[in-house]
Amino acid sequence: FMDKNTINKLAYDLTYQRYLLNKDKANYLFNDLSVGDYVVLHTVLCFEDKAYLEKLGEKLNLSISKMSNVATNLKNRGLVIWSHDGDGSEGTYLTVTETGLKLMDKQEDKLKNYYERVINRFGLKNTVDLIGKMTALETIMEEEMENE
Question: Buried (b) or exposed (e) across 38-76, using 16+ Cβ within 10 A?
């Protein structure tokens, strides 16, 4: 087993790294879109069929009410069209507009340029390994939160 000081230091380091990732350090890469906007629009574009709000919420770990707020914000800014088939009883879905696509292209170019330099310096294998480990760690952390 690890001693208390080691656990405390690792707990701080993990919390701090997640804080930095979610705080202003990532935001400098984003001008016209927020990190959240980018993630939502990217997720909408990844759906092979229609990006129904309920499925988007599940994929993004957001409640329907939170997903509705996000959709309203994106719609009001002209980045998505919020539609439904028939009477809407089968759910509503989002489609990225031409404006949204242009902003996504611009954002992805900026991210590609930045991360290409980072990956070149850190190494492709190291990056892939790290992402795999971060994903595994995040899964364990989520499971432990659910067990609390």
Answer: bebbeebeeeeebbbbebbbebeebeeeebeebbeebee
Residue type, 79: L
Contact in structure between 5 and 12 (CB atoms under 8 Å): no
Candidates 9, 15, 38; CA nearest to 26 is 38
Beta-carbon count within 10 A of 5 CB: 8
**Count of beta carbons in the 10 Å neighbourhood of residue 138:** 11
- Three-state DSSP at 117 gives helix
88: left (phi over 0), alpha (psi -120 to 50) or beta: left
Residue 70 and residue 40 in contact, taking contact as beta carbons nearer than 8 Å: yes
Neighbouring residues of 17: CB distance < 8 A, sequence distance ≥ 6: none
Residue with tokens 């330099």: 117
Instruction: Give the model confidence (pLDDT) of 7-33 as tens digits.
Output: 777 776 776 676 666 666 667 788 889
pTM over 0.70: yes
